[in-house]
Amino acid sequence: MKTRVGILISGRGSNMQALIRAAEAADYPAGIALVISNRADAVGLDIARQHGVPALAIPGRDFGADRAAHEAAIDAALRDAGCEIVCLAGYMRLLTPFLVHNWAGKMLNIHPSLLPAYPGLDTHARALAAGAKIHGCTVHLVTETVDDGPILAQAAVPVLPGDTEQSLAARVLAQEHRIYPAALASLTGAAAVPADRGISLINPCV
């Protein structure tokens, strides 16, 4: 029986699509039970529905400044759908300790850098500005500290002469679509992982 997974998005959700496509394979250990967006106009909601995945908008603006109430609604929807693991896929809203603690060891995120390098935003521009020779992406467990959880998987790409933010981002994104499904499959095979222990699944691609 496949592990039931919920995905949180804010926009188109290209990593969501990679996870959904992987989960459509009969031998993949996880199934996507629900997609939730904090934006009602997120294109990813329609894309998920086209794949037959239930999709739900729970807009943050409906809750005003009450982030706890917003996350409680998200948490309830995930549990009502029987989700056992949560994947963040372009979810552009900082989480509170409530949701992080409720899904400790069972919530994944993908970040467009080789953590611990370049946590936060504008990773490709920062890598280029620093003269980095290698860049990449990381799947990690979510903790209260942004982009600082145990690493589950990484993929590296070379920074090429003449690279722009856009060209570098495109190569990194291709690797994101590869390692996110691999990391999720590994995690579901290992069941819940304590928040202080990651899975060694390092996939360099240079």
From TrEMBL:
CDD domains: FMT_core_GART (cd08645). The keyword Transferase applies. Residues 4-184 form the Formyl transferase N-terminal domain. N(1)-(5-phospho-beta-D-ribosyl)glycinamide binds at residues 13-15. InterPro entries: Formyl_transf_N, Formyl_transf_N_sf, GART, GART_AS. SUPFAM superfamilies: Formyltransferase. It is an enzyme of class 2 (transferase). The keyword Transmembrane does not apply. The active site is at 111 (proton donor). The record marks 147 as: Raises pKa of active site His. It catalyses: N(1)-(5-phospho-beta-D-ribosyl)glycinamide + (6R)-10-formyltetrahydrofolate = N(2)-formyl-N(1)-(5-phospho-beta-D-ribosyl)glycinamide + (6S)-5,6,7,8-tetrahydrofolate + H(+). Belongs to the GART family. Catalyzes the transfer of a formyl group from 10-formyltetrahydrofolate to 5-phospho-ribosyl-glycinamide (GAR), producing 5-phospho-ribosyl-N-formylglycinamide (FGAR) and tetrahydrofolate. This is Phosphoribosylglycinamide formyltransferase. It comes from Acidiphilium iwatense.
